[in-house]
Amino acid sequence: MMDQLHKLDGRCHCGNIRYRYYSPVTTEDLTIRACRCSYCTKIGGRYTSDPQGILVAEVFDCEAIHLYRFATGTANFYVCGRCGMAPFVTCLLDDIMYALVNVNTLNDFCPIRAQIAYADFSHEDRETRLSRRRTKWIGNVTLTLPHGETMLGEEPVYSHETCHSLE
């Protein structure tokens, strides 16, 4: 299956958060959404995901990571405290980590020329929102933390002293 996917690399500006997104479509054919919520509007986030895609992400310094949640509190925006970028968003549902990536953080990609669909999810209740994520977001996510810890289907919790997973 991997040979049928297109490899797209991305990272925060300083490189503390890096990822590789294996997409079933080329960068020219990505479906890009701009959420109209206040947070996404302010940061200029443009997102893509595909349930057939694969996300492999790595965090190098957990102390520099801020997980930002708002509204329903069901999604984690991985914000680098060094450069302020949020390369991807995760949501844990039924022990499966789902994600989408911010195309503004893809290497060698110019979202200015891309077709962008504006989305307003404010009408969704919590269950509708989570159901949409199960069917539209990337469902194959691996997140590697410093010291070789790997997160599969778990949301990490960061303290100021260490990175560790929820138990």
TrEMBL record:
<dbReference type="InterPro" id="IPR006913">
    <property type="entry name" value="CENP-V/GFA"/>
</dbReference>
<protein>
    <recommendedName>
        <fullName>CENP-V/GFA domain-containing protein</fullName>
    </recommendedName>
</protein>
<dbReference type="InterPro" id="IPR052355">
    <property type="entry name" value="CENP-V-like"/>
</dbReference>
<feature type="domain" description="CENP-V/GFA">
    <location>
        <begin position="8"/>
        <end position="127"/>
    </location>
</feature>
<keyword id="KW-0479">Metal-binding</keyword>
<dbReference type="GO" id="GO:0046872">
    <property type="term" value="F:metal ion binding"/>
</dbReference>
<dbReference type="InterPro" id="IPR011057">
    <property type="entry name" value="Mss4-like_sf"/>
</dbReference>
<dbReference type="Pfam" id="PF04828">
    <property type="entry name" value="GFA"/>
</dbReference>
<dbReference type="GO" id="GO:0016846">
    <property type="term" value="F:carbon-sulfur lyase activity"/>
</dbReference>
<comment type="similarity">
    <text>Belongs to the Gfa family.</text>
</comment>
<keyword id="KW-0862">Zinc</keyword>
